[in-house]
Amino acid sequence: MEEDFSIEPDEKMIKVCPVCGNSDLYYEAGGYMGMVYHCKNCGYIGSLVVEANEEMIKKIKEDYRSEKDKKNE
Ligand SMILES: [Zn+2]
User: Fold this and answer.
1) Backbone phi, psi, residue 31, to 5°
2) What distance in angstroms lies between residue 67's CA and the mean position of ligand 1's atoms?
3) How many angstroms does the Cα of residue 38 sit away from the middle of ligand 1?
4) Considering Cα of 38, then 43, then 48, then 54, what sign does the dihedral take?
5) Are the C-beta atoms of residues 16 and 49 closer than 8 Å to each other?
6) What whole-number distance in Å separates Cα of residue 50 and Cα of residue 39?
């Protein structure tokens, strides 16, 4: 069996939380919504996750941190 790796390793996309950028998600049945993701880091629950590369993840995490700082004022 041959596999064709046409995607650059640098452009590897991973599924992350759209709120905090954490990739530590778990997937479970969420009633009427069907399957939903839970984020272990921020508690996000939803069927939507972001497929991001490392740069995008960094950006999401930075945005999340600055949002948090605003709330702490
Ligand atoms: Zn999260």
Assistant:
1) 65, -130
2) 13
3) 8
4) negative
5) yes
6) 12
pLDDT the model gives residue 25:
94
Query: What's the pTM?
Result: 0.73
Contacts of 68 (CB under 8 A, 6+ apart): none
CA 5 to ligand 1 centroid distance, Å? 30
User: What H or E segment, with its residue span, contains residue 72?
Assistant: none
Q: Is 43 left (phi over 0), alpha (psi -120 to 50) or beta?
A: left
Task: Tell me the one-letter amino acid at 54.
Answer: E
pLDDT for the residue 7: 56
Q: What is the pLDDT along the chain (73 residues), one digit of tens a residue?
A: 667 666 565 678 999 999 999 999 998 886 776 889 999 999 999 989 999 999 999 999 999 999 888 876 6
Ligand 1 midpoint to CA 3 (Å): 33
